[in-house]
Write a structure and sequence with these properties.
mainly beta; 18-stranded mixed sheet; 4 helices; about 45% strand
Length: about 350
Amino acid sequence: MKYINKVRSAVAVSLALLILLCPAASAKGKKKTVILGGMPFGVSFQTGELKIGGFDEIETENGILSPAKDAGLMENDIIKMIDGKEVTCAHDVTVAVKGGNGASVRFGILRGKEELSVEVEPVLSKETGEWRLGIWLEDSTAGLGTVTYIEKDTGRFGGLGHGILKSDTGELCDFSKGVVSEVTVSGVIKGKEGEPGELKGDFHSEKLGVVNKNTQRGVFGYITVLPEGFEAREIELMPKGQVKNGGATILSTVDGEGVCEYSVEITCLEDSGEKNKNFLITVSDTSLIEKTGGIVRGMSGSPVVQDGKLVGAVTHVLVSDPCRGYGIFIDNMMDAAE
């Protein structure tokens, strides 16, 4: 379920996995309670990297043209410079093109490990009367997942159980702050063998908080406003040495019914240094299987509860069997938060 869905709009996007896990204190030592999650959240953030996501065809007086593509730019090229000046966001390119009044612009790009220089001549759009390059630029990303828990006193939260990754390289995205938004789950693509499913959701415009730390074991930040209708439930943390094979539950939101609890089995407990695959989860709840096919993208971060205590969170689905996936110990997530 390691997935992050690139988007060009923050509204009504089909979102996959991605998001939220745990705070900064240890489950070891004295007992601690937190607010149990299970509700969906959306995260959007600037990547600090300007990438070409695709190309447009533009109607001009000379016909339909696609200047950026015709000049040799390619999807996934990373734009580093324009006319000798460093750029980090799409607005920088817009300013350069409009200010040039039709003059060609020179891009310094990174294609893989190769640095290239490409000159593009804008064309005048017959529809808008503006100079355009015919290029889609991506300088931010967004995704959906599930909150694992929130600290009652500080508002600090965590989720996802794994990091937010670059779709092309699999490396952790580098960002200092992202915006957390409420999300309404609008549909689900059911998982089946060989084809992981996913939750679909619509971002709300209201900001609920921020994320400021992205790690291999989760994403962390602060929530300043709780989602509408969310009922706080305090729960004690379970140290990983007390987790056992057997029955448990996961809490997740997969439809309009809100946060629901579903039966699972925990097996194959192991803390061998694996960052976010500490135990195996098998979904046994027929209602969840009927709704989603099992574990799907967007459920990452769903809290795992055993004997009334928070064990950890769902992190991955097995592509070969959507009823099975992995979870991470709450201890390991908190170590990452520190």
